[in-house]
Specification:
It contains ten helices and two strands, in the order H-H-H-H-H-H-H-H-H-H-E-E. It has helices at residues 2-28, 30-38, 44-76, 79-105, 109-127, 134-144, 157-163, 166-171, 175-216, 231-241, and strands at 247-254, 257-264. The longest helix is centred in the C-terminal third of the chain and has 42 residues, at 175-216. It has a two-stranded antiparallel sheet with strand order 1-2. By secondary structure, it is mainly α. It holds the Pfam family Tetraspanin. Disulfide bonds join 146-175, 147-164. InterPro entries: Tetraspanin/Peripherin, Tetraspanin_animals, Tetraspanin_EC2_sf.
C-alpha cells in the first residue's frame, strides 16, 4: 500500500514542482528580469511580474503538501490527514481557477505590458541619445537578439545601428515581434500547465473524499480490526457461544493491563 500511495500521489508532486520551476524561471529568467529591471515602479508589468511568482510558489507548495498528506493519510488510514489533504486540494483549486480565468480574460495583458516597457525605453532613447536608458535598451537588444522596431517612416536606421551592437544588429529582427513570439510560447506552456493542474486537482479532491469515506466506514480490506471483550457481558457472551464448555472467562485488571482468567458459567 505505501508504494501504491506514493505512485498515486506522484503526479501531484510533479505538478507542484513544475509550477515552482515555472515561477522561478518567470522571476529570475533573463528575459523577464531584464524587462523588470528597466520598467518603472508604477508599471503594470512589475505588478504582474511579482504576482506571478508569489502565486505560483504558493500554489506549488499547496499541491506538494496535499500530495504528501494524502500519501501519509493512505498509509496511516487517518481521517484527519485525509480531510486536511482534501482542504489543501480545494485551496489549490480555489487559487487555480481565478488564475485560469484571468489568463483567458486578459490574454494579451502580459504581452501589452512588456511591449509598453520596451516602447517607453526605445522612444526615450530615440528622443535623447545621451539618455541613461541607452545602456538598458542595448541590454534588451542583446538578451532578445533583436534590433529596434519596425517603423513605416523608415528614418531610424542610423539610431538602431548605434543601439544594436554585435549579434543584436546581425539578427536584425523587430523587437516587438521577437517579444511577441517569446511570450506566445511561454504563455502557451502556462495555459497547458494550468489546465492539467486544475484537472488533477479535481481528481485529488475526489480521491481524498473517497478515501475519507472508505476509512470512515471501515471499507478498507487491509484493515485489521482489534476487538476487546470486557466484564460480565464478555463472560455471558462466551458462555452463550460455547454452551458445551463449563469454563468461562473472568476478566479483571492487573496493574494497568487487563487480565483474563477462567470462571464457571452459570
Amino acid at each position: 500500500m505505501p508504494c501504491n500511495s506514493l505512485a498515486a500521489n506522484l503526479p501531484f508532486q510533479l505538478l507542484g514542482l513544475s509550477i515552482a520551476t515555472l515561477s522561478t524561471v518567470t522571476r529570475y529568467g533573463l528575459h523577464f528580469s531584464t524587462i523588470s529591471n528597466v520598467a518603472l515602479e508604477s508599471s503594470s508589468y512589475r505588478a504582474i511580474y511579482h504576482a506571478a511568482f508569489y502565486v505560483g510558489v504558493c500554489l506549488s507548495m499547496t499541491l506538494i503538501l496535499a500530495a504528501l498528506l494524502s500519501a501519509v493519510a493512505t498509509v496511516r488510514e487517518s481521517r484527519f490527514l485525509t480531510a486536511t489533504a482534501f482542504f489543501c486540494f480545494a485551496l489549490a483549486f480555489c487559487g487555480l481557477t481565478p488564475v485560469a480565468c484571468w489568463r483567458y480574460m486578459h490574454s494579451t495583458e502580459v504581452e501589452d505590458s512588456m511591449l509598453d516597457v520596451y516602447d517607453l525605453v526605445y522612444d526615450e532613447v530615440r528622443r535623447n541619445e545621451s539618455s541613461s536608458r541607452r545602456h538598458e535598451l542595448t541590454i534588451i537588444h542583446e538578451v532578445f537578439l533583436c534590433c529596434g522596431k519596425y517603423s513605416p517612416l523608415g528614418d531610424i536606421a542610423a539610431v538602431e545601428h548605434k543601439m544594436c551592437p554585435g549579434m543584436a544588429w546581425a539578427a536584425g529582427r523587430d523587437c516587438l515581434q521577437k517579444m511577441h513570439g517569446f511570450l506566445k510560447k511561454h504563455m502557451g506552456f502556462v495555459s497547458t500547465l494550468l489546465s492539467i493542474t486544475i484537472g488533477f486537482t479535481v481528481y485529488g479532491m475526489v480521491l481524498t473524499s473517497f478515501l475519507w469515506f472508505s476509512i470512515h466506514f471501515s471499507n478498507n480490506l487491509d484493515r485489521k480490526g482489534k476487538y476487546t471483550l470486557r466484564g460480565r457481558k464478555a463472560t455471558a457472551l462466551i458462555c452463550l457461544l460455547l454452551p458445551s464448555h463449563k469454563g468461562g472467562i473472568e476478566t479483571g485488571t492487573m496493574g494497568s493491563k487487563p487480565s483474563i482468567g477462567l470462571t464457571m458459567c452459570p
